[in-house]
Write a structure and sequence with these properties.
Elements lengths: L1 H30 L6 H19 L6 H41 L15 H18 L12 H10 L5 H14 L3 H5 L3 H8 L5 H18 L8 H4 L7 H11 L9 H9 L8 H9 L7 H14 L27 H5 L18 H5 L44
Helix pairs in contact: 1-2, 5-11, 8-9, 12-14
């Protein structure tokens, strides 16, 4: 009996051993799934029917292992799902963190240039801004109406302390009555004052335009000189006015340092100079001479339309990522959009007779002096029925504006 029992126990031991081997072999089957050898595949095929037969058995002895194995299998199968969800969670978190970075460009505050910025780095930065402005304002032009150098020099003198719009609305009557330097030199000052009254400071301006007309008649044969040293000798003509005339009437490069130009080049940290002559010299060293005239137009156009003195429209500025002064003005895009002027805001420009390129770009001609009320048709508008906004220009005689 003892030997039988021993044999029984011995036989029972191998019965359990195969079960362990089976479970052991099943584990490697999962672990070594990448190398499907015949030895590992055989237990997997045998164990599969056992698992399927287990639910079919009704005996109480077999459901226990089946229940015991099913949670393990479920947990084993659930583990990859949890791992996948665990991996997916960081991915979602990463995407959640990445979302603000996509919306950030509207609120980006560009880093200011280093204090020790080299001259080469400054040149590259300045020229890049000018290239960007050239793409924004490909139609940039002098915003004074003129047909010859005489009209341009007179209009530029009159533009001090008023808008180019007001000058353009005033000069048709002036040049209609006094078309040549000889005519204006012999004019009655009181009659000229009455015509120039809407531009503000009309007495001083009358004295200047009559004086420069006399100088042109007496010293230059009634012709506007094409040299800087001669132009600055004329009454009321400084370097700024001289460069406007040279660049736009004679095609000779010049930098126009008006109030807009001074403000923007300092905001962009191109220079820290405050005197116009020194600003002109500093900026002239950053650009080729051939680019000086268009550079002036680009900067002045941007200063009048977007980068205003008191409240720049930073949120609507196309060169905001390049601007070290970003944030000085309104950064909210919707609020900044309301600050835009002239064609950028959908309003008329400053010229009654603008270049065709400006009209092709969507620009609207300015209304003449004594324009009709808002909602009426603008004479000479590019599109029939275009209304005149209330903000088309200041009241007649108002000197409130930025010079230039």
């Amino acid at each position: 009996m003892k030997s039988t029992a021993k044999k029984t126990s011995a036989s029972g031991t191998p019965a359990k051993a195969p079960a362990k081997k089976t479970s052991a072999s099943s584990a490697p089957a999962k672990a070594t799934a990448r190398k499907p050898t015949p030895a590992t595949l055989t237990p997997a095929k045998k164990s599969a029917p056992a698992k399927k037969a287990a639910p079919a058995a009704v005996t109480p002895a077999k459901p226990t292992p089946a229940k015991a194995t099913s949670p393990k299998a479920a947990s084993a199968k659930a583990t990859p799902a949890k791992a996948a969800s665990a991996k997916a969670a960081p991915a979602k978190a990463a995407s959640a963190k990445a979302t603000p970075s996509k919306a950030a460009p509207t609120k980006i505050t560009p880093a200011k240039p280093p204090r020790n910025e080299s001259h080469t780095a400054l040149v590259r930065r300045a020229r890049r801004i000018n290239r960007e402005l050239g793409e924004v304002y490909p139609y940039a032009h002098p915003e004074l109406d003129f047909e010859n150098p005489f009209q341009l020099v007179v209009a530029t003198v009159l533009s001090a302390q008023t808008t180019d719009l007001r000058v353009n609305q005033t000069t048709p009557a002036l040049f209609g009555k006094y078309p040549t330097p000889e005519d204006l030199a012999a004019a009655n000052p009181e009659e000229v004052e009455e015509i120039l009254r809407p531009t503000g400071f009309f007495r001083a301006k009358t004295k200047s335009v009559i004086g420069l007309s006399k100088a042109l008649r007496d010293d230059f044969g009634g012709e506007v000189p094409g040299r800087l040293e001669d132009l600055v000798k004329l009454p009321g003509v400084g370097r700024k006015t001289a460069f406007v005339v040279l660049g736009n009437a004679f095609g000779r490069p010049g930098i126009t340092v008006d109030t807009h130009f001074q403000r923007l080049v300092r905001r962009w940290q191109w220079t820290d100079q405050t005197e116009p002559d020194k600003i002109e010299a500093a900026i002239g060293g950053l650009f080729p001479k051939s680019e000086w005239t268009m550079l002036s137009h680009h900067v002045i156009f941007h200063g009048r339309r977007i980068c205003h003195a008191r409240k720049p429209a930073c949120g609507a500025c196309p060169i905001a990522p390049l601007c070290p002064a970003y944030g000085e003005g309104e950064t909210d895009p919707e609020k900044a959009q309301k600050l835009l002027k002239y064609e950028k805001g959908g309003f008329p420009g400053q010229r009654l007779n603008p270049p065709q390129s400006y009209l092709d770009a969507g620009g609207i001609p300015a209304p003449p002096l004594g324009a009709p009320a808002p909602g009426a048709v603008v004479p000479g508008a590019s599109a029939p029925g275009a209304p005149v906004p209330a903000s088309a220009g200041p009241a007649p005689g108002s000197p409130a504006r930025e010079a230039g």
